[in-house]
Amino acid sequence: MMSAGLRDIELRSRRTELLLVATVLIFSIPLILGYGLLILSSFSKEMVTNLNPHDFIPTLRNWILFFEGRTAVFGGIRVNIWHIVLNTLIVALGVSFLVTLVGSMTGYAVSRLKFSGRKRFMALLMLLHAFPGSVMVVGIYFLYLMFLPSYQLVRFYSFFFVIVARASLEIPMATWLMKGFFDMIPWEVEWAALVDGASRFKVWRKVILPMVKPGVAAVMLFGFLAGWMDIIYVRTFLVDQTLATWIESNINAEYSYLPLVAAAGTFYLLPTIIFFLLAQRLIFTISATGVKG
Amino acid sequence: MVVVRLVNVTKIFKTGVVGVKDINLTVNHKEFMALLGPSGSGKSTTLYLIAGIYKPSSGKIFFDDRDVTNLPPKDRNIGLVFQNWALYPHMRVYDNIAFPLRIKKLPENEIRKKVLETAKMLRIDKFLNRYPWQLSGGQQQRVAIARALVKEPDVLLLDEPLSNLDAQLRISVRAELKRLQKRLGITTIYVTHDQAEALAMADRIAVINNGRIIQIGTPEQVYSKPATIFVGGFLGNPPMNFVEAEITEEKQGLYMLLSGQKLTVPKHYEPLVRKAGLRKVVVGFRPEDTAVIPECRETGECIKGRVYAVEPMGREYIVVVDLGGDLVKAIVPRSLVLIEDQEVCVCPSLEKLVLFDPKTEKSLETLYAEKT
Ligand SMILES: Nc1ncnc2c1ncn2[C@@H]1O[C@H](COP(=O)(O)OP(=O)(O)OP(=O)(O)O)[C@@H](O)[C@H]1O
Ligand SMILES: [Mg+2]
Fold first, then answer.
1. For atom 4 of ligand 1, which residue has the closest CA?
2. Among A121, B125, B150, B223, which is 20 to 30 Å from A234 by CA?
3. Which H or E element spans position A214?
4. pLDDT in tens, A188-197
């Protein structure tokens, strides 16, 4: 709706454009191949990862087994796959919600309020983001032990632990991202709304929030995917399984039937693919600022 | 029915920068006041103080007898057009204009009526369905004015609203805006750094420099009787000429020596010069109040000089004359043929010239008025 399209402007010649596309394609071949073979295998009796066309025997059985919650063709344990999906969703949505809430508020504060130590705070956030999340698992575990008695580390609370821990890893980046979006809003637009009679809250809700919508959407998506994909924190703190841990445990199992795992993997990829398509529209929307150059 | 009054208003920013200092300004009901000054002089700061966006560090602001110094912007019923317009980019033109009314929770059909009316008045009713970035600069500016006017404000504040328009559009919008203001009768403060705009539009002009108001007066007063050298040099195109002169006393009266040549001190200035006891003055005279003649007479009314350059301006010529090192400009009719390095005589109109004190750079009238 607000895309002041660059389509009308000739940025590069046809030839450079073709060259660019070709380069991008070449570098993405391994990725595309990997995912392609995974998806193909999920519809086949045998894994097709050997690139042997005879391996491909089309079938839907893997998917049926997957939705039945079977982990092997014969025998194996049966699980309620929808329960696992629900767990994954709880974690992903929880992380997404927390990251968006805290990230956008901190981002606003860092962008708009000139408190002392602001620069150092921003640098600290960067540093926090630079630490790999897995390094902190042990620390976080002890932190939790310190603040909450261990007998509470069960079922319901375990979601809380995972979500808070995982979200806190994403919040630094979300804060930076949101700060960038808030920085783009000129003070004058905020003031205009104040002069027009709006209260601080109305200014935030009717003027600022709509202007940073692409940023909020991006942070929401990244938060969701972070929760959806997380494995270390889920395995450490969650009593139940999510898709990630479930797939992982089935890869290693003796009875594991790989085409079935491929189906699970493909299913697991779905949100990433869907969101990626959505995000392209959302994030690459150029929002004109309505302020003269 | 609002008189805006600023009393000793000072704004010092947290960074220590002085935005404005000791501003005293009264804008009368229905008056069109121009706030004129160079970049960074504190014009926007003054406007934001009146709007309530900035809080003054000291001093008070009144709307009529109501002290609004600590009132938030939303309670001041002000229309403000920002320097960069500050339209809401995510709203269509219609919603931009309707925004202040929606905040007031007016019924939607009344909003519709008012928005259409205002849009028609500013001739933007064709664009109501567009987004701001789909409009030209001139159209966006009208939207900003419409948004400020639609709520029928008591005070209209305009921050260089025409600065982004091309020269021709600016001149036509300028006349339009002036008519509109008179028709609506809203107390208006108009910020500009363009002296021609201020002269053309305002009932009164307040000249501001370095955060201080230097002179307030009608365009005529500010133009012909500048209070300081700065004001004389800031208004007019080309601006006022300034030449230093020494005062000498002779039998017939006081004279000013400009590069060794005599110019009579105008009669009405004699008491002022004597009272101030000045040895030196700065003579200010406007190019259009200056005659250039090829032949000189010894009358104490003209100074000999040499033509430095001639600039044809279409309607008239601007002659630059070298008066023993000082370059001065004069506007002459096209019929007068002058060539470079020709010797000419420059005769500033003695009634219209203004004398300044070289130390304080204030006009002698101002100096005298301050002393009494
Ligand atoms: N928020 C602020 N913080 C610190 N200093 C400021 C701030 N706003 C303005 N200033 C300073 O105050 C002085 C006056 O600024 P102001 O914006 O009022 O100038 P102006 O007359 O509107 O200039 P222009 O014609 O360029 O818009 C300038 O020196 C400016 O740098
Ligand atoms: Mg300004």
1. B13
2. A121
3. helix A213-229
4. 999 999 999 9
- Residue A291 scores a pLDDT above 50: no
The residue whose C-alpha atom lies closest to atom 11 belonging to ligand 1 is B19
Domain B239-371 sits in CATH at 2.40.50.140
pTM score of the predicted model? 0.81
CA dihedral of A248, A253, A257, A258, whole degrees rounded to 10: 40
What was the pLDDT predicted at A126?
86
Query: Which one is the CATH code of B4-233: 3.40.50.300, 2.40.30.170, 2.40.50.1020, 3.30.70.330?
Result: 3.40.50.300
Residue B251 pLDDT > 50: yes
pLDDT in tens, B163-190: 877 888 888 888 888 998 999 999 999 9
At residue A282 the predicted structure's pLDDT band, cuts being 50, 70 and 90, is low
How remote is the CA of residue B40 from the centroid of ligand 1, in Å?
Answer: 5
Cite the residue boundaries of each domain of chain B with CATH code 2.40.50.140: 239-371
Is residue A210 less than 8 Å (CB to CB) from chain B? Answer: yes
Interface mutation target, options B88, B91, B131, chain A, most CBs of A under 10 Å = B88
- Is the CB of residue B38 below 6 angstroms from any atom belonging to ligand 1? no
- The full set of domains in chain A, from first to last, is 81-240 (1.10.3720.10)
Q: Considering only CB atoms, which chain B residues are within 8 Å of A288?
A: 89, 131-133
pLDDT tops 60 at residue B49: yes
- Go through B52-61 and write b for each residue having 16 or more CB atoms within 10 A of its CB, e for each that does not: bbbebeebeb
Residues of chain B with CATH 3.40.50.300: 4-233
**Contact at 8 Å (CB) between B160 and B84?**
no
Atom of ligand 1 nearest to the CA of B191: 22
